[in-house]
Design brief:
Elements lengths: L3 E5 L4 H12 L3 E6 L11 E2 L5 H8 L5 E6 L14 H32 L3 E4 L13 H7 L1
Parallel strand pairs: 1-2, 1-4, 2-3, 4-5
């Protein structure tokens, strides 16, 4: 049976490259992103990771789930003095809370993976967690 991987933030950049690598290695990929600018690949989902219920539903039943890659992230570039609370909240909802919700929702499937040996969770951080730059306070804090 072909193993499956769920990858959040799979529509662009590092997420797309990660999904393509899994596919080249023979995995079925379920990409999750809030929008797919180039068209959504077969088997993928379009959803906002801030929607806990939709995220739990998406991860409650993928067959053969062997890997979850929490890669999605949002960044608001703003001077700290102008950073809105709503931007901080959204950054943490996507960059932190969604990874925890996704992992929790996938636990049973991952525990059963590989004949009971278990699957893998990869949480992708950022260099900004340890060496950031001006105007990325919320993003750097969320990745730290």
């Amino acid at each position: 049976m072909t193993p499956a991987a769920v990858i959040t933030g799979a529509a662009g950049g590092i997420g797309r490259a990660t999904a393509e690598l899994f596919e080249r290695r023979g995995w079925d990929v379920i990409g999750i992103d809030r929008q797919w600018p180039d068209g959504m690949p077969k088997g993928s989902l379009e959803l906002d990771l801030a929607d806990d219920e939709a995220l739990r539903d998406a991860l409650s039943g993928p067959p053969r789930l062997e890997a979850l890659v929490n890669l999605a992230g949002v960044m608001t570039e703003s001077p700290l003095s102008a950073l809105e609370t709503a931007d901080i909240d959204r950054t943490f909802r996507i960059n932190v809370t969604a990874a925890i919700v996704a992992t929790s929702a996938a636990m049973d499937a991952l525990a059963a993976a590989s004949g009971g040996r278990g699957g893998s969770v990869v949480n992708v951080a950022s260099v900004h967690a340890v060496a950031s730059r001006a105007n990325l306070a919320a993003y750097a804090a969320s990745k730290g």
